[in-house]
From TrEMBL:
Database matches in CDD domains: NTP-PPase_MazG_Nterm
Name the record gives this protein: XTP/dITP diphosphohydrolase
A Gene Ontology BP annotation from the UniProt entry: dGTP catabolic process
GO MF terms held by the record: nucleoside triphosphate diphosphatase activity
Domain NTP pyrophosphohydrolase MazG-like, first and last residues per copy: 30-102
Record's keyword terms, sorted: Hydrolase
Protein species of origin: Williamsia marianensis
Keyword Hydrolase attributed: yes
Lineage: Bacteria, Bacillati, Actinomycetota, Actinomycetes, Mycobacteriales
Matching InterPro entries: MazG-like_dom, NTP-PPase_MazG-like_N, NTP_PyrPHydrolase_MazG
Amino acid sequence: MTERPSGWELLAAVELMDRLRRDGPWEREQTHESLRRYLVEETYELLDAIDSGDRDHLLEELGDILLQVLFHARIAADRSGDPFDIDDVARAFTTKISARTQGVLSGNEIDLQTQLEEWETRKAAEKARGSVLDGIATGQPALALAQKLLERLTAAGFPDDLVPDAVRSVRVVADGPSVEDTLRAAVLRFMADIRVAEAAGPGPRTPEFWRTNLPR
């Protein structure tokens, strides 16, 4: 009996998703937007499985995440303009990761620090960000969004004292306003102010630049 290569079962998973999208009344109706909440739910369930340390639970939840990837790729294949499919997703993955890990893939020995530096250097070259905010996903939970923003600003040398208190801390009050909504609104306002400052003109984003151009 010939041993099947790793990844063989993925072909069956892709075929199953194709059939469900074609023949399933519910699957035919779904869009990227309608599946958003399921992706969020499945992500949290995967985190719970990781915390549990349960092998079977983790296996199941990873399968649910795989379903989301296959489903979104299959929906994208039906787009009327500029469609893509699961092969394009896999190709984009291998192209990006291969480019960022050339040191590892070269066959030469490489230490952790060198690998991390190579990753960040190549990632920065790919992104060519014009804004310190580029690439920050605003759809993530407010606390994660605030943390990501502060990490990005710290790396960019943004003055710590210019960060609003409303972004830096939250206050939980029984029967009070939603902490999620309150923090998200504060972070989005701060991000809008940062974009206003960046639009003031070119030049190095020094602490003095931010102090001069950030709306007060």
